[in-house]
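Standup notes
- DV: blocked on the single-chain target, sequence here:
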Amino acid sequence: MTQYLIAIHRPHGYDPVIEEDAAMAEEIDVLNHQMQESGIIKFVGGLQQPESARSIHVQANGEVDINEGVYLKSGEHVGGFWVIETISLDEALSWGQKAAIACRAPVEVRPFY
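- DV (later): unblocked, structure below
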């Protein structure tokens, strides 16, 4: 069995308090319940806004800098994720599709080593 990350991507400025209605919350709860019943879920978590992130960089001279904000400067950020364990990539992709539908967002599915 292989563990996979299912990451939900959100645009910067996305506010779940405003943009996630009761129907969406219910669909995510149902998906979490289905994952738990299937025994595949290892961890699930939502992340705070990207402004709460801190990026740590090691400079060429060995000094470490801590900066406010996300490391990758793009128009999106990871808003939450699941770590699941399945027998195949196809099964992980099936769960990823369900996550994309429930969260109404792009999803990345990636195996762990």
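- Follow-up: The longest helix spans residues 22-38.
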